[in-house]
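Predict the assembly for these two chains.
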Amino acid sequence: GAVVSQHPSWVICKSGTSVKIECRSLDFQATTMFWYRQFPKQSLMLMATSNEGSKATYEQGVEKDKFLINHASLTLSTLTVTSAHPEDSSFYICSVQPGTTEETQYFGPGTRLLVL
Amino acid sequence: GQNIDQPTEMTATEGAIVQINCTYQTSGFNGLFWYQQHAGEAPTFLSYNVLDGLEEKGRFSSFLSRSKGYSYLLLKELQMKDSASYLCAVRGGNKLTFGTGTQLKVEL
């Protein structure tokens, strides 16, 4: 399976600041990456699909101007939470889809964001 | 859209067998996945079903009935390390929609 890393694993920031989270596909060139958010005791919710070389596709209810996604290369996608607020505190997870739809997505280890 | 239901919590005894059910209603179906997630970690893949029937993989088996919109994950010979959240996820197109997860507690 694909190996996916995320950085940072933990971040604490003040309200109003911006935070960038990196997702790297270490052994596979990913034209598509996915960003999820998971609140405590809830399931993963897809935020957006990141497409290499083009604009991300956002799910309904996700503010594209607040959650900026850049997929500049086949191995790196970044999610920037702009003007973060305490309600943005969550577990952010990225994933890659290596090949055909018969395969699972492979998930990064996640980034825990705490906004004070 | 997708609607996926799972029990919130289950408790079972070490060495026993437990079945975690998942029902779904979808506008498109391209496979059903089961994942295990320990607290604070990312999900790890357990099984995949796209055709009706049972898929067996070691201590874990997963069943799918597309006509009934139903799946279950069967865990045998439970171990303490199996205590985790188990997520049912349905793929429609290239997107995964997750259920809320079933928190399994394995007791001695």
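The interface with chain B takes residues 1, 32, 34, 42-46, 49, 91, 93, 97, 101-110, 112 of chain A (CB under 8 Å). Chain A has a mean pLDDT of 91.
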